[in-house]
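Hi team,

Below is the intake form for Alanine/ornithine racemase family PLP-dependent enzyme from Nocardioides islandensis. Please confirm the fields before the structure is written into the shared record.

FORM ID: S-0412
PROTEIN: Alanine/ornithine racemase family PLP-dependent enzyme
ORGANISM: Nocardioides islandensis
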Amino acid sequence: MSAPRVEVDLDAIEANTRSLVDRLGRTGIRVTAVTKAVLGSPGVAEAMLRGGAVGLADSRVENLARLDSAGVGSARTLIRSPMLSQVDAAVQHASTSLNTDSSVLEALSRCAAHRGATHAVVLMVELGDLREGVLPVDLVPLALAVRGMAGLSLAGIGTNLACQHGVAPDDRNMQRLSELADEVERAVGSALTIVSGGNSANLGWALGAADTGRVDELRLGEAILLGLDPLTRLPVEGLRTDAFSLVAELIEVGDKPRVPSGDLGQTAFGRRPPPRAGGSCRQGILALGRQDVDPDGLVPPEGVTILGTSSDHLVVDLGDHEATVGGELAFGVGYGALLRAMTSPFVATVERRAVSPRLPATLRGHSPVSR
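The structure came back. Fields below:
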């Protein structure tokens, strides 16, 4: 089998989606599943839909087009403001988009009207994390403007927290979102169908809040895919953390000193190697590098230590493993590692629905929370 490769357990993704759909459903919150970390994989998307997600979302029009071409039947939301150069593709491949800019909205209006389509708009409002979103004072005027644009319908409002500065969703900012939904409805004279509270970082709040207010949708990616809370990177209770592993092949194995010799400068990526204890180790080199994965998000098998990474080589201390050239190691992945590995053209993807045979325990990576 080709290596490096990401192995995907679709049953785990379906189970995680169903668990979150059921638990959030008791609070009146729907789940829109986000596919951006898996490059818009139709297989993963269908697992999410089988688990009960009401729709799919992605930040890249190209990924939504992939889902569209694959015939994945579902509402599709573009969760990054469309680029002006892609507004026509956004209208073609997304039923809804998140927006903040009047010039983009005007361009969407022209494209939708030209196509004879109606494109739904969710206006994003800034509530503290300082990424996308209009200031609350500007929200009602923008909503009124959308109401006057041909080809557009005002579906709702939303916000995004935790991604830029780690601002946690809480009763205060979520209550403010509910208040803004009421203000917009009074101004435009019609009900909003979407009040989108945010992403996987909202789960702690949503599952523990006494009252979730007007929030009726969350956009969930990391929690479904990895079973983790982005605010803590700890497992979400009841979710599986083993849906993904990254498998790489050993291309060199041998005993080498732990400490380099000679005068030291910067490494290939501008870093200085950390100090190491002396002696020797059984060193392995895998055909995997920074062009394929974010090494900071890799979790090696128990007893294996990552020593360094260049563009194309991952160097590890194999410890007591009886590994040989041509053998494989499987690593757990965090969000950044998964995102880059799924994007690399050099990393294959293998998706399975049935529970697949596990690699030997000594050669498998652990959940990122086992460090």
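SUMMARY LINE: The chain is about 30% helix and 25% strand.

Thanks, M.
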